[in-house]
């Protein structure tokens, strides 16, 4: 196969995890938190099932001409187990995951957490996006964007 005919493909794999959290910012008063986050600010927290095909990492890379794959799915499964399932599944995000001790455990920040963890394990430049469905209606897509110029 000539370099001209190299093909780019996007590979995705889903995982499902359950976790609880409380939306609460230390920068706000209790009243401001309640106003901003409503019932999601419940002091006892609340939970979500981030269900199959609803938490997806997508890899963009050339198809290897020898293996015919973007990446071995067994390897990807292991990376996702380490980066997502072990730290997040059946956890209280605010109490069990050190990252969220200073960061509000919104779905946006869960997506950033997953992105950062996967970036540490995957080959450089292969991760394209992380998509997190908190519910059927609430979805966050993160592509590694770090800042917005204001």
From TrEMBL:
Q: What is its EC number?
A: 4.2.3.12
- Name of the protein in its database record: 6-pyruvoyl tetrahydrobiopterin synthase
* One GO biological process term: tetrahydrobiopterin biosynthetic process
Q: Name one GO molecular function term.
A: metal ion binding
PROSITE patterns linked to this entry: PTPS_1 (PS00987), PTPS_2 (PS00988)
Q: Name one GO cellular component term.
A: mitochondrion
Identify the cofactor(s).
Zn(2+)
**Alphabetical UniProt keywords:** Lyase, Metal-binding, Tetrahydrobiopterin biosynthesis, Zinc
Organism encoding this protein: Vidua chalybeata
